[in-house]
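Teaching assistant's notes for section 4

Start the section by putting this record on the projector. Ask students to predict, before seeing the second block, whether 3-hydroxybutyryl-CoA dehydrogenase FadB3 will look compact or extended. Collect guesses on the board.
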Amino acid sequence: MTGSYTYSFEDIQHRPVAVIGAGTLGRRIALMFATRGGTVRIYGRRKEQRDEATQYVAQVLPKVLADRRLGEAGVVTATGSLDEALDDAWLAVESVPEKLEIKIPLWGEIDRAAPAGTIFGTNSSSYPSRLMAENISDKTRLCNMHFYMPPDINAIEVMSNGQTDRGLLDTLLTVLPEFGMHPFEVRKESTGFIFNRIWAAIKRESLAVVAEGVARPEDIDGMFKLALGVSVGPFQMMDLVGLDVVLDIENHYAAELPHLPKSVRDLLQSYIDAGKLGIKTGEGFYRY
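Reveal the predicted structure now:
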């Protein structure tokens, strides 16, 4: 049985968004959906992380609104109850660690708790949503919604699971710009979607150059910024995302492409083993 997932902005403006996951990206996703005066509920299992997520939104939201000169502050709450988070939600975005053994059962829980008509989007950065759909009764309601690093990088890749309702995809492509985001449709299933396929090659080669002792992270970042006129380099970006997340993604690519260099994953693992995960632990390739 399938539902209807075609909405206008006016249809959903006063309905909640549920963000499942209160980590680095979950809280940033919640931030963007809080820019048009609506309600956003963040679900997280740990109270400490829930509190950090709502504090982040409270601190950053005024500047985002001032920079956009559009919108109004919404209400952002956090809860340890999926039922509470999903109550009357028009959209549920999952942003939990990049491991199918976590995502698959979680989507089953979300499916049981969500109202009919709720759109499901996974923020997975490397897995197609069809791989986590086995416990979802209506697979036409699920798609990939890959956010980059809002509010600084507001691109979103939207990708069908092969069965996703066309009206759902059109809804997201139409409605997301109202929240200051820029959706791009991935028109064919692609591991890494659009940009991450390109970014993975840059990131992997940068790590290989360091693993081989050719250059230091700061040398690569420095040249990258000068050559491309950007404000951050690959190693700064990896520290921002989290080296544990970077390794999870690279392991996924390696499972599909066994020829990829192991030295890259070994380098990341050495930092993780030393407790250096990036900004979130105060040190990664750089100290913070």
